[in-house]
Amino acid sequence: MSEATNISDILPAWMTSTGGTSSKRDYKPERYELGYVTDGLAPCVDAAHKAVQWWLNDILHGARDRVRWVTLHGTTGSGKTHLVRAAIATLRAHGAQAQRWSWGRLRDMLLDDNPGLWDQVARMPHLALDDIFTGYMESDKSAALNASLLYDLLEARLDKWTLLTSNLSPADMPDMRIASRLVRGMSEVVNMQGAQDYGILQFQRREAGRKEVHA
Predict the structure, then answer these.
(1) Of the four, 38, 52, 139, 189, which is 20 to 30 A from 66 by CA?
(2) Residue 143: exposed, middle, or buried by beta-carbon count in 10 A (0-12, 13-18, 19+)?
(3) How far apart are CA 132 and CA 116, in angstroms?
(4) Cα separation of 41 and 26, whole Å?
(5) Is-contact 104 73, C-beta < 8 A?
(6) Contact 68/188 with Cβ under 8 angstroms?
(7) Residue 165 is inside which H or E element, if any?
(8) CA-CA distance, 198 to 82, in Å (whole number)?
(9) Domains (ranges, CATH) in the chain?
(10) Is pLDDT larger for residue 10 or for residue 142?
(11) 115-156: per-residue pLDDT in tens?
(12) What average pLDDT does the structure give for the chain?
């Protein structure tokens, strides 16, 4: 990039605007490659993409007083897991300590008494917890234990950078203590419930392109 190039000329408007979560940052933001473009997708997917981009920018540019927790909630196929995987991969590529866990797998391993695992995930500087409360059944006898375990882990990560995904909105979660943690302070929650299944959408686009070629 030449010295004469203005940052606003190469970044999308939402990364150089003066409103919303992009305001008053003292660094030049970057657009990290997260594996897909949001053009033509539902606005809520674009909002999720922006939230994760800013989360990455603030981490990698050392912005301390910014959103530490971002929660994406939406139906299966809306792209939540794709975004958190890409975000963790980006952090690792830049030399940052980062892990992604499926909450169900992590929960089972924690309950199975794996020495040192709790401290590892509680202290991890950058962590993604994927699919919290996925498959939750109100009649499940273990639901209270699982919710309590997750709450304790979130409490231990109050000042740590954390991405979370769920099929449930905070209001629908079985433990309101957790819902309160997800929306408190500068935390950001993105509702992706209106997003079309990304895999199906891509299939439809491929099919439409194939028909145009053979028309």
Answers:
(1) 38
(2) middle
(3) 21
(4) 30
(5) no
(6) no
(7) strand 161-166
(8) 10
(9) 25-213 (3.40.50.300)
(10) 142
(11) 899 999 999 999 999 999 876 655 455 667 788 899 999 999
(12) 81
